[in-house]
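May I ask you to comment on the folded chain given beneath this request?
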Amino acid sequence: MLNNQSLIEPSLFGVLIQLNSIYCGINLNEIQLPEKCSFLGILREDKVISAQENPEIYSGDYILAIAIHSMMVTALKVTLKRIHSVYYSLNTCLLESRRISSKVS
């Protein structure tokens, strides 16, 4: 029996790539993963594309990955779910233009 078996607790999962993901339009191997984590590939529609092919990532893809130790699952998910910050600003505040009833029940 392996002495290091307690160190190996692999966790497989897929992360859906959103429209505002920072990874849209880049190749899979450009992503820097946490230690003890690896890519398996991408699931696009009903086709699995191997990580060895280094596919470009599109919105709607699922990135398939493995964390060799369960302690790294959270770090891997946080890494793969990174999105662009969205800043939205109006010239006027919508709350100011809304009428509020002065009646209190």
Residues 24 and 58 are 5 Å apart (CA to CA). The first helix runs from residue 73 to 80. The chain is about 10% helix and 25% strand.
